[in-house]
Amino acid sequence: MKPLISMLLATLVVSQIAISHAAEISTKKEPTKVQAIPAHHWQFLLFTIPGCSSCITMRNQVIEPLIESGHIHPMQFSEVVQVSDADWHYVRGLGYDQIRNLKVKYKTSLFPTLVTIDAQGNKIAENIVGITSVEHYRTKLEKLIVELDKKP
User: Which among 22, 27, 89, 146 is placed 20 to 30 Å from 13, CA to CA?
Assistant: First the structure.
């Protein structure tokens, strides 16, 4: 009986090692390619509200594909979701501010509104408000990105 128990324990230990090794291999992933941080210092702020279908369309069908294609670096995009005017939001490079202050500073009142700012938080392009069609908005945004990339 003892040899049987020893054999079962040995099999259990070997199985545990194999499972552990398999789990370790499956968690190892290819290194993620990190995009270089762009030399230009502009970013987009997308002002949205919860449940806004146009805001969701803008983010999912316009902004995210432009990030995935490399037109927009992930560090150049922040979404400012307004739950209340008293909410605080972090804007990269500028720190935290209340939504009401950001709305006044960047003159937003409709959703979605895309604001383009420089590294100091100054608005450097006309706000893009609402969404008529995904393709129209994407084309407009791609032209704006080309213009922004040309600036020193």
Answer: 27
Neighbours of 22 (CB within 10 A): 10
Q: How many domains does the chain have?
A: 2
The residue type of 102 is: L
Do 127 and 56 share a structural domain? yes
**DSSP string covering 7-67:** HHHHHHHHHHHHHHHHHHHHH--PPPPPPPPPSS-EEEEEEE-TT-HHHHHIIIIIIHHHH
Structure token pair of residue 148: 């922004």
* Tens digit of each residue's pLDDT (9 = 90 or more) over 99-125: 889 999 999 999 999 999 998 899 999
Q: What is the pTM of this model?
A: 0.71
